[in-house]
Amino acid sequence: MPVTQSIVRCIEHTLEVRWQHRVFFSDLALASANLLLRDLLGQATNSVPTRVLFVVDKSLSEAQPALLPDIRAYCATHADRVTLACEPLVIDGGERVKNSFSNVSQVQSAIEACHIDQHSTVVAIGGGALLDMAGLAAATAHRGVRHIRMPTTTLSQADSGVGVKNGINAFGKKNFIGTFAPPFAVINDFQLLATLPPRDLRCGYAEAVKVACIRDAGFFADLERDAAALRAFEPGALRQVIYRCAELHMEHIASSGDPFELGSARPLDFGHWAAHKLEQLSDYRIRHGEAVAIGIGLDALYARNIGLLDAASAERVLRLLDKLGFDLFADELRHTDDLHQIRLIEGLSEFKEHLGGKMTITLLSEIGQGIEVHEMHPSAIIDGLRELENRYSTGRRRESLLTEKGIM
Ligand SMILES: NC(=O)c1ccc[n+]([C@@H]2O[C@H](COP(=O)([O-])OP(=O)(O)OC[C@H]3O[C@@H](n4cnc5c(N)ncnc54)[C@H](O)[C@@H]3O)[C@@H](O)[C@H]2O)c1
Ligand SMILES: [Zn+2]
To answer: String of b and e for 209-225 (b: at least 16 CB within 10 Å)?
Structure first.
């Protein structure tokens, strides 16, 4: 009998999973009188009291010595609803926590040892890196246990903590191992930012500029208006930026039609192809937010160089980043391989590989309007790099070192 079709039979169903993705804004969330966390922990579980494992960023707990006692006191006050499954697990924060699987194993071991099951909760408190690592552990233990995030950096309250992804770095690549797993809830407690050093407070602004550039010209104008207040970290301005930035990120996740990024496009990764490579080239000396600021500056110049973005708009983007206090050049941008090629450019192919499918990079056609392109020209990128170097490298040397070294 001739074979006319290779499928003999197929059973097909559409599976619908609905998530309520919630970010709460609160102050002093771990004060016993604040019932938000208690009520969240009590929801959607038939185990009363519910068991909780806290995973805490070490730098945060050192900077805020009252934090661990506050956690214990909170659970003791609400003992009828919440049981501290074991002592809070305190783990180093910062990018290094994502550079080894052993930290994920440590959290998974605690989940096992403390009998955290699908009616219990992991509460992670810390910067974006700690949250990414702990989120991966929670998403994979028992095929996923409930997980609440309490971000403690500007960047994580405005961007990474309110998203649906987690991950760690592997094989020298950012976020190579990770999952899409929306948290049960996110609590943004502004008081937790009190001890964050200026460098990390500033980092979140890069994601705010990014999302304003691609989605909201009005927010971009607000950032320009408030740049001096933001640079001085005035609380009112800082709160407003975090709120609007989180709102725009969540709107995108909820309305883009692709919350788990199954397509090739990642609009929220504007400026990130270069940023991820720069973080890696610097051996993570450069923070994510700092690298994103440079990536945005470079892509704005690139868009101008290829005639996509008008010169005045590119200038506004650079001026805003500069006013917010970002350094828009780093020595790692000069790194070359054995063939004297600029290593940053490798970031393009690595970014494509990470997304899969057709290369899709978000650039700007105007402020507030992202646009997808499917190729980038190395020569126009290098022109952008040279301009960043001439304008922003130490001492703002007129003669480009890149030119001196005969690289460009
Ligand atoms: N999952 C996502 O969707 C997503 C999105 C964007 C960025 N990210 C990731 O987020 C990470 C960057 O996060 P980040 O900018 O929050 O930095 P971070 O987590 O590296 O924290 C910076 C430093 O501040 C310390 N710290 C945190 N909170 C503190 C506080 N309140 N007081 C004192 N010290 C404190 C940390 O221990 C760390 O040393 C990167 O790994 C990036 O890839 C993830
Ligand atoms: Zn980012």
So the answer is: bbbbbbbbeebbebbbe
